[in-house]
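Hey team,

Filing this mostly as a record. A colleague (T.K.) asked me to run one chain through the structure pipeline before their review meeting, and I want the input and output archived in the tracker in case anyone asks later how it was produced. No errors, nothing strange. Just documentation.

Input sequence:
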Amino acid sequence: MASKDGKEVSLSATIKPFTRIPAGKTLIEVDKLDKLMEDKKRATVIIQDTFLDQTLKELLGDLHFLRQDKEVKKLFEPSIGGPLVSLTHKARLAYALRLIDKTVLKDLEHIHNIRNKFAHSIKMNFADTEVVKSVGNLSTAKGLKVTVKNSYKIYKDATSKCVLYFIVVFKQEQFRQAALMMGKEKKE
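Output structure:
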């Protein structure tokens, strides 16, 4: 964060003057917020999950739902408990519609599980035994010994694999819909 004079100022330095927590009685150590905000792996996990989630939403909503009205949009609305708010729920529907295979479904479930671990724990990292175990369940880990050193790379490989899979599915769906439209035009 930049100050008025253009120098970088840490988040904790910005917050400290406004905190009224007695010395030694902190809810969260403000100094650790800087490190947390700079944690690129954590940011990658959250962003990758969001990207996969939004891509599935577009694949389902834009290409497969015949209606695009307010009622359909409610399916994805978290504030009203829409049934398709999470990546996992979207992935299960995509699997049911045969848009993704079981391997991609399971990868998406594990990717979202890893995201939840990072989103709900400040101390979470790729050295955590739960995260290493979840990474070990990804298809990109098949035949590999997942370790603290390689767990992040295996995770990134799995998310990249899902993105590439979605690109292929999008192209196939676009061709399918174009063929349907051409078929309708010939009948008219």
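Quick notes for T.K.: Residues 83 and 89 are 7 Å apart (CA to CA). The chain is about 60% helix and 0% strand.
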